[in-house]
Amino acid sequence: MNVILTTVLAVQMLTALIMIGLILMQHGKGADMGAAFGSGGSGSLFGASGSANFMSRATGILAAVFFCCTLALAYFGNASPRASTSVLDNAALVKPAVPAAPATGSAQIPGTSMPAAGNTAVPVPPAVPASGVGQIPTK
């Protein structure tokens, strides 16, 4: 499956690049009138009107190939089932880091590493709010 996706993607990219080159090489509809009166527009690669049939047909064929490759990539991209279909399901797996409690009492004084004698209580971190499905109220 991976080889097919890589091949289709390579064909799509090459088709797009070749199509861009063909479109830029074509001359507009108004260039024929200038070529008829001796303007410099007739000095193109395939002549004044010889390139119109080949280039327009090649552009159409490349556009059809590009469209088919785009449809194939869209089909193969959605064909494989995913384990989780929601971003909110994955958000509940990651818990944010609990910030450290602010220092109180003698712990605020620089150079002291021992807590005060009366300050032996361990600070309780705040409750982490529910994320994802836990935020949806139940009846």
From TrEMBL:
<keyword id="KW-0472">Membrane</keyword>
<keyword id="KW-0813">Transport</keyword>
<keyword id="KW-0811">Translocation</keyword>
<comment type="function">
    <text>Involved in protein export. Participates in an early event of protein translocation.</text>
</comment>
<dbReference type="GO" id="GO:0043952">
    <property type="term" value="P:protein transport by the Sec complex"/>
</dbReference>
<dbReference type="GO" id="GO:0009306">
    <property type="term" value="P:protein secretion"/>
</dbReference>
<keyword id="KW-0812">Transmembrane</keyword>
<feature type="transmembrane region" description="Helical">
    <location>
        <begin position="54"/>
        <end position="76"/>
    </location>
</feature>
<dbReference type="GO" id="GO:0005886">
    <property type="term" value="C:plasma membrane"/>
</dbReference>
<dbReference type="GO" id="GO:0065002">
    <property type="term" value="P:intracellular protein transmembrane transport"/>
</dbReference>
<comment type="similarity">
    <text>Belongs to the SecG family.</text>
</comment>
<dbReference type="GO" id="GO:0015450">
    <property type="term" value="F:protein-transporting ATPase activity"/>
</dbReference>
<dbReference type="InterPro" id="IPR004692">
    <property type="entry name" value="SecG"/>
</dbReference>
<protein>
    <recommendedName>
        <fullName>Protein-export membrane protein SecG</fullName>
    </recommendedName>
</protein>
<dbReference type="Pfam" id="PF03840">
    <property type="entry name" value="SecG"/>
</dbReference>
<keyword id="KW-0653">Protein transport</keyword>
<keyword id="KW-1003">Cell membrane</keyword>
<keyword id="KW-1133">Transmembrane helix</keyword>
